[in-house]
Structure formats: C-alpha cells, structure tokens
Amino acid sequence: MMMLQHGSTQLLCLTASSGVPLFTRGASKQLPFSVIGSLNGVHMFGAGQGVELSCCETEGGGKVVWRVFQDSVMLIAVSGGGRGGAGVGKAEELRLRRLLENAWSCMVLVLGQDELTDVRNVERLKRDLRSCFTLVDQLLEDRQEGILGNLTHCVDSLLPPDPTILQGSPTVAHRLLRFQLLPGADVCVLCGPTPSLHKAESRLVGAFWTPLAETLRGCLAIGEQCLPGSVSLRPDLLAVLLINRETRRSVSLVRPSTAHPLGDSPSKARCWELLRLFYVFSTTHYFTQEETSSASPEERPQRGHNEDFVLGFSHQPLQCYLVTDECKSFGLQTPQHQLFLLVPPSVPSFALRTLATQTLSDIVAAT
C-alpha cells in the first residue's frame, strides 16, 4: 500500500519511550494514526530484539527512515517514492537522514536540548514545539537556491578579497538579536539578558562593525559569485561546490546563463538541483560524507560507501565523474577539500580532471 503521494515527504515526531505523537509536518495528506503507530511499533520491536531499524523501502518505492535522538525523541521521515532506481534510492536515503538531523538541530536551537531530553509534560512539549514548525517546513520544502549546508552539513560562506574574522563561542545564549549593518548585510548576536536592545545597537554593534564597513561592502559586491575578483573561473563552468573538510565550510555558485551562449545549457535553478544531486551521488557512492556532531559513534561506521565497486578496494577514491544529457560532472577529493563541478556536455571528458585540478588550485591560491 502506498503511504504518501509520489515525491512528497512527511516528518513524524514522537516520544521515544512511549511513542506519543508530538507533531507531524509535510505532506498535505497526513498518515493515519494506525500507520504512525505501526512505524513506531516495528522500530520498538526491533530495539527489543537488539536490532536497530534505520531504513526500509516501501512497496510503492518510497522510503522510511528512523532516528532516535538522546533516547528521548524519535523522528521518522517518510517519502512517497517515485524518484527512480537503486542509485537514486541511496540518494533519497541520505536526503531523509539529513532531514532528520537538521530537524533535531532546529528543535535544539529553539527549545534547548535539556527541554527535549528531560520531558516532564508531554502536552506542554507539544505546544512548545510549534515554534519550530517554520524552520522544519523550510527544511521539508528544500527550495532555497544557493544554500547547500542542509545537505553538506558545512557552513555556506563566501570568500571575500580581504577576509576579517570576528567570531566567538558563547556557552550560554538567551537571546538572538539581529541588526542591519548595510542593505543586504545583517548581523545576528547571541547574548544573555543584558545589555538592552538599544544599548546593544548603539554601543556594541557600531563599535565592532563600523570599522569593517568597507569590508562588508566588498562582500556584498561579490554577491552570488562568492569568490574574490582575483579568482578567474573558466567560462565553461556551469556550477561549483567547494568544501573545506578541515573548517567545515563550503562555497557554492552557479554561473549566470549569460556566461553560456549555448541555448541547451540548464537553467540556473536546474544547475542548483544538478549540483545537489551530483554531491549526493558522489558521497553515497565514492567520497566521504562529512559527519555531524549529532551522529552517534555506533552509526558512523554504517555510513560508508554503498557502491560495491568501492567496497572491493582498500584505498579511498579520489576522483569520480558522471556524464548525462544535461551536463558532465566531476568530483575531486583531497585530504583538505572536496570539489564538485558541472560543465556543458560539449567539454571533452578527458579534460575534466585538468579543469577540476586547475579550478581548485586557483581558488585555494587566491584565498
């Protein structure tokens, strides 16, 4: 029996100990309570037998992914299928796992981990979780162009020509304050009960950020390019995703359609989609997935490569490529970086490695 419509996704949140539903978000037609109870029951039955049920495929081609966080909250992601064959199924599993991790992170951000791990009043928790719905719905829609951090779990960033780093690591945060520095540039500040909003704006924000006004204007000038002007990319590049594996930061960009005179080039929106798909393809078949702090030590060994070809070798793949009717894609992995490129089909396949190596070298040298 098909649980959801093709292409739709539903997120279920329950208490891990008793299976009490806390909220349901996603598909317009919610799953019946009996189905939700069955999904929770089969997971609890497996746990009672010493078996961890993490993912399964439905008869209609959909997928169900389970995850228990801090032995307190269970999140279940259910997709309606209709997304393709086995390789696409692996990509869909990764997408759903990322969805569960990101949803839990949203809940921790809004409510705090203590409120979620020490549940004293379920009805109150249900009410409090409503404040997370906007963020969770954004994750389910997954339509933000240029934002890949929810998939890569690296910080989306840009590389200004004169970077100035001002950062801190507060241990306690009570308020999130947001101030506009320039049109298009805002700063968010985590602080305790003091100072007041007026004092923070008049005394702190101006003192710290006014000297950096020109640097901020330089960042705004970069815009969607995300790279300093000293980096000259080849004109036949459609899209680029560069991940720094040490700092867990990423830079991604799609070239404007005017840079590609050929009429058969994918649209900007389609290039973002293809870039995401190639990243998922590469990390589920060949490259290393960047783990998050929410992944348990027991779960990390299970997140290796799913490709039989890779499992037959002791070494780590360093390059991969994919040729489709829309574009050619090339991935390059080093101890410090992962680079993913999209180019038009007209670019010769034998030139992809040189193109990727040169692009990585140019960006690293300039930043």
Could you write a compact summary of the structure shown?
This protein has 367 residues and is of the alpha+beta class. It has helices spanning 33-48, 86-111, 113-117, 122-129, 133-141, 149-152, 197-209, 213-222, 268-285, 308-311, 352-366; strands spanning 9-15, 21-26, 55-57, 63-69, 73-79, 155-156, 175-182, 185-191, 239-244, 249-254, 319-323, 328-333, 337-343. This is Fuzzy planar cell polarity protein.
CATH architecture of the largest domain: 2-Layer Sandwich
- Number of strand elements: 13
Helical amount: 25-40%
Number of domains: 3
Overall structural class, as computed from helix and strand content, comes to alpha+beta
Oligomer: single chain
Question: Helical segment tally?
Answer: 11
User: Overall pLDDT, averaged?
Assistant: 81
User: Could you list the spans in which at least 5 consecutive residues all have pLDDT below 50?
Assistant: 1-5, 300-305
Query: What is the chain-wise order of helices and strands?
Result: EEHEEEHHHHHEEEHHEEHHEEEH
Radius of gyration: 22 Å
CATH topology tier name of the largest domain: Beta-Lactamase
Spatial order of the strands in the main sheet?
6-10-9-13-12-11
Instruction: Kindly estimate the percentage of residues that lie in beta strands according to DSSP.
Output: 15-25%
